[in-house]
Write a structure and sequence with these properties.
The complex is a heterodimer. Chain A has a seven-stranded antiparallel sheet, covered by helices on one side. By secondary structure, chain A is an alpha+beta fold. The N and C termini of chain A lie far apart (about 40 Å). Helices cover about 30% and strands about 50% of the residues of chain A. Chain A has a single domain (about 1-150), classed as 2-Layer Sandwich (Alpha-D-Glucose-1,6-Bisphosphate, Chain A, domain 4), CATH 3.30.530.20. The radius of gyration of chain B is 19 Å and the shape is globular. Chain B is about 30% helix and about 25% strand. Chain B is of the alpha+beta class. In chain B, a hairpin with a 2-residue loop joins strand 6 and strand 7. Chain B has helices spanning about 10-20, 30-35, 75, 90-95, 100-105, 105-115, 120-125, 145, 220-225, 235-250, 260-280, and strands at about 5, 25, 45-50, 60, 65-70, 130-135, 140-145, 150, 155, 160-165, 175-180, 190-200, 205-210. Chain B has eleven helices and 13 strands. Chain B has a domain at about 175-285: CO dehydrogenase flavoprotein, C-terminal domain (Enolase-like, domain 1). The chains are: A alpha+beta, B alpha+beta.
Chain lengths: ~150, ~280
């Protein structure tokens, strides 16, 4: 499934870029993150708790930044699994930053996400809704955190 | 705790569930057992509610409300004798899945699972029902509208179970309708509509309309319902109600239909449900 959204942060693009590539900031802003760490210059490992009704699981994912043009554009590749590979997740994402003349930055992201395995059997429509809500919550948290850091 | 437990009181069941966050309450098993078979959930233990006689009881309360025990099966609810108004729940029960599921599933289990495409949630919201809950910190009742919180998420806290639903009386001149659009008979709703109206000399004196399958919770727009008061169940205010619900809906895009399709069919289904409420009682859908 394809997920797309955008949000605006009142901070310059280089500040937003730095925050987006900082595992501590992502860990603070993305709901359900139990653990996140850098495993290389452009690679991260994270454990993300996902709950959908009675289903509760933890996805272990590796995220790799493939191409980057700081502070404007990056593409990332995410691979992960949950329940000892009962489900396998893959996501190819593009993030674009657009600094506006007023000093704010628009963050646009698009992600092609596939879930194969036991969770793939469970309502894709609802999974998309949950993913969209997760994206919005992340955007709100991220915006608040970066703007507060920029103001400090 | 491991294995299978079969307590005989609500207090005992709540105690077992509160002691182990990974244990699950087993009602009829229509959904939970299927999910276990699909390897989607693996509870540490099952606490069967089948041995709790109190959860099967149905009673009429002093104010005329009807209390349905959580362990009543859909098949029983589909043929129960309810007054016009609260009988929207009987209509919804009759449309659930197929006879096998209706003989297995319970109203408490369905409500606690809160599938957005299930039949009871919209019917309970339209009926103005309350959901009764027992838990480690005591008993409480939550309006159906507040009970459904998010996708597959309810107001139930850790260790809490649904013990029953309370349907308030519809009053004189009450009518109800329940309809759902499905791909094949017995499927989950693409869109479902539950309506409870009260008519006084042909004019609308009360109205609640809830749409299911089109968001994390049943969709209801009380303000647009009020615009019908004093008039009929058709005309511009009725059309505006359907449009307002379609606007407020947050439907999923899935194999049953796109979000846009669901929004598109809501007004027509709402109009049909209102027309069914307006029809003479013996012909009401």
């Amino acid at each position: 499934m394809r997920l797309e959204d955008s949000f605006t942060v009142r901070a310059p693009a280089d500040k937003v870029w730095a925050a987006l590539t900082d595992p501590a900031t992502i860990g603070r802003c993305l709901p359900g993150i139990e653990r996140i760490e850098a495993t290389g210059a452009d690679a991260y490992r994270a454990a993300i708790r996902v709950e959908l009704g009675p289903i509760r699981t933890v996805f272990n994912v590796q995220v790799e930044i493939r191409d980057q043009a700081p502070p404007r554009r990056m593409t990332t590749v995410t691979r992960g699994e949950e329940g000892t590979r009962a489900s396998v997740l893959s996501a190819d994402s593009t993030v674009e930053l657009d600094e506006r003349p007023d000093g704010t930055t628009a963050v646009r992201y698009a992600s092609e996400v596939a879930v194969v395995g036991r969770l793939g059997k469970f309502g894709l429509g609802v999974m998309r809704k949950k993913a969209e809500a997760l994206g919005r919550t992340f955007a709100d948290n991220f915006r608040a955190w970066v703007e507060q850091a920029a103001a400090a | 705790m491991t294995g299978f437990r079969r307590p005989s009181t609500v207090a005992e069941a709540v105690g077992l569930l509160a002691a182990d966050a990974e244990a699950r309450a087993l009602a009829g098993g229509a959904t939970l057992v299927a999910m276990m078979n699909a390897d989607l959930v693996a509870p540490s233990a099952l606490v069967s509610l089948a041995g709790i006689a109190a959860l099967r009881r149905t009673e009429t309360l002093p104010d005329g409300s009807v209390r349905l025990g959580a362990m009543r099966r859909h098949a029983e609810n589909a043929v129960m004798d309810l007054a016009p108004g609260p009988d929207v729940v009987r209509r919804a029960a009759a449309r659930i899945a197929n006879p096998v599921v209706r003989n297995m599933g319970t109203i408490g289990g369905s409500v606690a699972f809160a599938d957005p495409g299930a039949d009871y949630p919209a019917a309970l919201v339209a009926a103005g029902a309350a959901v009764e809950i027992a838990g480690p910190s005591g008993d409480r009742a939550v309006a159906a509208e507040d009970f459904f919180v998010d996708w597959y998420t309810t107001a139930l806290g850790p260790g809490e179970i649904v013990t029953g639903v309370v349907l308030p009386p519809g009053g004189a001149g009450a009518r109800s309708a329940y309809d759902k659009l499905v791909r094949v008979s017995g499927d989950f709703a693409i869109v479902s509509v539950a309506a409870v109206a009260r008519l006084e000399r042909g004019a609308v004196a009360g109205l609640r309309v809830a749409v299911g399958g089109c968001g994390p919770r049943p969709v209801r727009v009380a303000e647009a319902e009020r615009a019908l008061l004093g008039g009929g169940l058709d005309g511009p205010a009725a059309a505006a109600l359907g449009a307002a619900i379609a606007e407020a809906a947050d439907p999923p895009d899935d194999v049953r239909g796109s979000a846009a399709y669901r929004r598109r069919v809501i007004p027509g289904l709402v109009a049909r449900a209102l027309a069914a409420c307006a029809a003479p009682l013996e012909h009401a859908a």
